[in-house]
Amino acid sequence: MHSLAQLDRRFVWHPFTQMQDWGRSEPVVIVEGRGAVLVDAHGRSYLDANASIWTNLHGHRHPRINAAIRRQLNRIAHSSALGLANEPASLLAAELVRVAQPKRSRAKGSDASGVGSRKLEKVFFSDDGSTALEVALKLAWETTRRTRGDKVPRFLGVQGAYHGDTVGAVSLGHIDLFHKAFGGMLFRSDAVMSPYCYRCPFNRAQPERADARTYRRCGWECVGKVEKVWDRARRRGPGYAAFVYEPRMQGAAGMIAQPRGWLERVAGLARSQGALLIADEVMTGFGRTGVGENSGRRGEAPLFASLHEGVIPDFLCVAKGLTGGYLPMAATLTTRSVFDAFLGEYEAFRTFFHGHSFTGNQLGASASLASLELLRDPQGVRRRGELEGVLADALKQLWRFPQVGDIRQEGLVVGVELVRDWKTRAPFDLKERVGFRVCEAMAKRGVLTRPIGSVIVLMPPYCMTSAQVRRCVTALAESVEEVLA
Fold first, then answer.
1. Percentage helix, strand, coil for the chain under 3-state DSSP, each rounded to 5
2. Does domain 3-62+380-484 correspond to CATH entry 3.40.630.10?
3. What residue spans define the domains of the chain?
């Protein structure tokens, strides 16, 4: 066993990891990366098929991001944002506000229902996805108390939601496996049913060899259920302060892709009740869910999943890919009306009493500015669109396996749900570790990813070549055959 692996096993406690299992084999110790390739301590190479847990956009050691960080290092690495401003954070805030605005034609179509009538104008920096949601939660709580007079504002989320691991963010989440151990520490939040077409009780369609969203037969009963929740809330007193959602794709729930139109419908219901919208784009942001239409011209590709359906939230939470996957940094974008609720004379103490030591860090902001430049590049936008097509075409080979029940793709995010038999949709028991066993077999073939239960995730960096994307899918196919045949 490599000496670094021995040190890891002796001293490191890994997140979301069964540490008893961890000690039974030698861990992969990553020592180097370039582009979409990772190299371990033994010199073995792997394709980074989940973008280093959904963070890395442009590949490792990208020369333009590296150069931006080096330039900033020659000036200053960090100074406090408490009472001080800095150059890269100021530039980044302005750029985030700019790219968070929708295309004019799309926003106009949404204004009638109020879904797209907001404008994000202010940016609060923090450290990671959990803290970005915590900021939004606290701001929504206090804004509602000050503007609506609610004594104890309530929050509504979606079943299967995961929004992070701070106490507030966990309270917004609805995955019992992750959160039930901390139940005594949490405040209550309610949840509406997730639009999980593959396992929806209202979907009358028989299983087919395609994404369940494409052949579903229903009457949008899932939206009707959401409407009933709002009606009940209105009858018993003050409604919900905010509706919290992951747009287009629920990540930790198992890469549950929403059917087109769901988000606009449920956001419209929330707006009609005077509730705020909190968009968790920690995973879906920065182009992950697709380039959309008209991607050939500069600036035409929406960088945020909410904008694909013309939904402009009151809070837009981003992290992970913000720096291109280089440094821990997050941001919560919000509106002028929320900001104004915290204005007042000094003695009124209407300050937002929340902060982080590394808020607005210069190195993170510099990396983020370089990443946003790459995302806006027309050639890069076209390349992402082409890669989406290559990935979709490669995934077709998986339908030959009876254990592949559903394949859900949004842009460059894929969830492949493994089942006992596609005709019955019968799931595997978590104790069988099917997802982990398939991913272990993929690692032997030089492809690294991490499952969510029995769902295999593929989320390639944007720099992957077509051949590398096909190799990832082929490794998945061979691994399914090895483990489940």
1. 40, 15, 40
2. no
3. 3-62+380-484, 87-376
For 278-293, b/e burial (b = at least 16 CB within 10 A) is bbbbbbbbbbbbbbbe
- 3 state SS of 197: helix
Q: List pLDDT tens digits, range 317-346.
A: 999 999 999 999 999 999 999 999 999 999
- Compute CA 142 distance to the chain's CA centroid, rounded to the nearest angstrom: 25
Question: Which residue reads 């963010």 in tokens?
Answer: 169
CATH fold match for the domains 3-62+380-484 and 87-376: no
Residue 306 token pair: 């909410």
Tokens describing residue 17: 């990891």
Task: Give the strands of the sheet with 45-48, arranged side by side.
Answer: 30-34, 37-40, 45-48, 447-448
**Element (H or E) spanning 10, and its range?**
helix 3-11
Mean of the per-residue pLDDT values for the chain?
94
Q: Are strands 242-245 and 155-158 parallel, antiparallel or unpaired?
A: parallel
Neighbouring C-beta atoms of residue 210, cutoff 10 Å: 12
- Those residues whose C-beta lies under 8 Å from the C-beta of residue 173, and which sit 6 or more positions away, are 157, 161, 162, 163, 164, 179
Residues 447, 441: Cα–Cα separation, whole Å:
9
Query: Which tens digit of pLDDT belongs to each residue from 354-407?
Result: 999 999 999 999 999 999 999 999 999 999 999 999 999 999 999 999 999 999
Rounded CA-CA distance 126/319 in Å is 9
Alpha carbons 282 and 74: distance in angstroms, whole number? 30
Alpha-carbon span 333 to 98, nearest angstrom:
11
Q: Read off the tokens for 402.
A: 């009876």
Q: Indicate the fold that domain 87-376 takes in CATH.
A: Aspartate Aminotransferase; domain 2 (3.40.640)
- Provide the token pair at 118: 């907001």
Residue 298 has pLDDT above 60, yes or no: no
How far is 169 from 132, CA to CA, in rounded Å?
9
pLDDT in tens, 201-249: 999 999 999 999 999 999 999 999 999 999 999 888 788 999 999 999 9
What's the token pair of residue 157? 């989320």
SS3 (DSSP) at 243 = strand
DSSP secondary structure code for residue 285 in this structure: T
Q: Which residue has the tokens 């000050």?
A: 146
Q: In the structure encoding, which two tokens stand for residue 100, read together?
A: 């968070």
How confident is the model at residue 19, as a pLDDT? 93
